[in-house]
## 1
Amino acid sequence: MTDRPLKQVHLAAHFPGVNNTTVWSDPASGSHIEFDSFRHLAQTAERGKFDFFFLAEGLRLRETKGRIHDLDVVGRPESITVLNALAAVTERIGLAATVNATFNEPYELARRFASLDHLSGGRAAWNVVTSSDAFTGENFRRGGYLDRADRYTRAAESVQLAREFWDAGEEPVRHRGPQFEVEGRLSLPRPPQGHPVVIQAGDSAEGREFAAATADVVFSRHSDFAAGRAFHADVKGRLAGYGRKPDELKIMPAATFVLGDTDADAAERAAEVRRAQVSPQTAIAFLEQVWGVDLADHDPDGPLPVVDPDPDSALVQGRVRIPDPVGTAERWRALAAEKGLSSRELVIEVTGRQSFIGSPATVAERIDHFVQQDAADGFILVPHLTPGGLDEFVDRVVPLLQERGVFRADYTGPTLRDHLGLPLPERR
């Protein structure tokens, strides 16, 4: 045990964007395009005093065998457009947009996020993502020009140059680097936050180093306790090399949840949610993502495919291919044999788990435990229903975190940096 003060839990709300998180068959499932859905979820998160509202984004609809899998979310309005509108109907919650550094110029990124920061009174955040995917690049004049090894080089210089524009305001910027040569002016004053908050989600060695050097928040995929502690220690341990302190970077894994009046009730509801998330069609689409072969005639209620995966397949476009598909298939076959699982049951087992399942008291205790034990600094919550899926969490779990003294009763400052406990950057 240590005598350090209790860490404060950070919470954000993710509007589901891709994959099979959303339970479309539920009567409460609403539109992912109508503005009222975004408004409801953002205002619910603000009522719960969350740090920020988060939008993912894809630049091209993902395909399997040239077709769109319509049980995934496949399209919606552009993120910064949505957030600019939300700035008018919210007051304090941060507004975070995912925007690709590969297919956007640093000047336009700096200008768009500075505009959002001014319009919202200092609540803007940029989730920096990269792409070396030629399939996505076909929507742009560059195509798939960027080698995978260069994607973080471009992203790092994009952030650096955006920050130069933010620091300069209306003063001239002269930048010479390996990716960009720019002379120009931002045409806006310096943003209220100095620099809008930078979020990063890469998990490779390059991604972790990029986060340590550049990011304010890491959107981590490590919601398992042991994996979360290892990731937290690894990334925080890299900060000193860049002259940064551990509390200057917040690590917030994505997390799902299912609540019930009792733990048993929640477990029963979670099983229903998992089965609804992984329809027979979704199970086949996921297997094709691993196997790389056409499985249209495969029985989802039968055993796993007997054929070996094709590691060089281009059957699936726009999705990140699961590493080591042959080894993954072998591990899945062993798991299916051990537990007697069909193909669909196997996919449910490996993809459909909720991070937090239980009564409100159980979920509040587990979230607090993760944060106090340095497995995370907080969580970006992804509800399985839009737009009302966060309501129950805000009404039943947030008050218990507040009673524990680990979550704010109200906002203490106007900006997202205030919510996250991040200092205003010095003007360089």
## 2
Amino acid sequence: MKVAVLDINGKDTGRKVELSKDVFAIEPNNHAVYLDVKQYLANQRQGTHKAKERAEITGSTRKIKKQKGTGTARAGSIKSGVFKGGGRMFGPRPRNYGFKLNKSLKRLARKSALSMKANEKAITVLEDINFETPKTKEFKAVLKALNLEGKKSLFVLGASNNNVYLSSRNLQGHEVVNNSELSTYRIVNANQVVLFESSLEGIETNLSK
């Protein structure tokens, strides 16, 4: 699968790169994508929610009315959850929402997500760029040249490039990551995936194992 390489102005450089069929042209496994995205979102949850139960409420523990003869339900403590100001019944407790997935499944999920984007013509290959200093204005010019304004985009670097990363940080909906930080959620969440030319080798190496 050959894709044209674009320059910083969004124009064809005349060169083409071959995208690996084992990474960008497999039969997508939707369930693997679902599980990997579910795990990513679960790991974002802090799990610090907590409500006070009846044992943690300050209040009298005396029996508030006699057991029988009132015509109403029996009640032993004002701290019961059925009374105003009482403890929460079956309230949330701190917990870890994370769960484990096998590495092979996670690789399959990322390859499936990339293959989906390739089928949708939502992958762009851009020649490597660098900014002398971090400037949001320069990154916005790249977005405009690639017609990505108003769209969610994911830029994948071949190696760490602090100037490009910092130039994009203030722009909502646009993310810059290294090829080692590529995740299924980030791929699926983007309208367009922009792969820098130097990132292809790392992506294919990481996902072809």
## 3
Amino acid sequence: MRQILWFRRDLRIIDNKILEKASNEVLPIFIFDKNILEKLDFDDKRVTFIYDAVLALKKSLQELGLDLYIFFDTPKNVFTKLKNEGFDEVLCSCDFDSYSIKRDKQINEILPLKRYLDSFLINPNKNLKKDGTPYKVFTPFYKSLSWLTSSDKIGEAMINPNLKLSKYENKTPTLDELGFERVTLPEFLKKSPQNRLDDFKEKVKEYEKNRDIFYKDGTSNLGVDLRFGTLSPRMIFNEIKKSDKENSEAFIRQLFWREFYNYILFHFPNSENENWNGIEISWSEDEEDFQKWCEGKTGVPIIDAAMRHFNKTGMMHNRLRMIVSSFLCKNLLIDWKKGEQYFAKKLLDYEASSNIGSWQWAASTGADSVPYFRIFNPYLQSAKFDKEAIFIKSVMPELKDVDAKLIHIEGALKDKYVNSIVDIKYSRDRAMRIFKEAKNAKV
């Protein structure tokens, strides 16, 4: 039996299911998928991160007496070629977005594909209600998993020590050969995944209090690791529970929001492109407003600071994500799908299910989403979570000498900053009316 170990969203050797389930002679591979890369900008930050993570994985496997063979091609071409080399089957982790499902079906027709749950904690096809239907609301979904969320430890995969490397001639492509340039990543990503986890363990006690304050470093900073599997969700769950069980609940709950959104996309795949709750909104087609939102030129300081920081770093604090998405979908009345697609292009930790679920939540169109009448006031939000405008001023030097109180008052900046493209009260009332009409029409 000759097996191909296809690393995808599991770029690590610790707690990796395919390294546990593999046997005998193996060929570990990673594919820089041309189907995906051809749609990305040449300076996409994710490619730099993934490239470095793949090289680190290669080194880790070499220390085990194995190796990692790195391809730049389509998966279909790679596996057609490897089948002719006499390999019998492929081991990989599960992935649930639409492209991954189509890709895996295609590869399974070339070589038998064995998939293992490794990027998430639960199999979305198994945790159903008593009537056999999927949960649609987070709280009962979360409560149904109390047997898991209340546990102290989830079993982790062990490496099979008896694996033998199947030698293969293959040259590792450079970033330049992939068609990308190396870009600067946020400072915290220069640390190892384990060091990032260790850093967060020191913050867990204050996590619930600090996670909404976007000028503080109070979040986990583990989204990229979860997305690309440089840390497994089991490892993170176990280490956080072990380090501070008493204060871990707030973070564990957030970890399961990620599970919930993956669960929803699995059971309702049309929600990737359609309003999950079926309402029809008369969205604005104002492209100029959308571009100003993208570029951070709306005239609303907290929105502009968040979007400029995002465009520069590929990172955005969760509270800021809620504020800018509410502004786009409610105040500007622009379709959530446009915002989701823009985030998909820029987010370092972009994950289809979480991004789609979060945008549908903000737009009041998704599963267990915010009620349509709950609309974030960006000025009140910035006053509450950035009172001294520390974050805003760090991004927008043109406001560094302005009294922070004025930054949090609509229209108070006058000649100190550009005028807002929309009146908050007017746009709020407009959104309330249009969403109410849409909801009544559906009923």
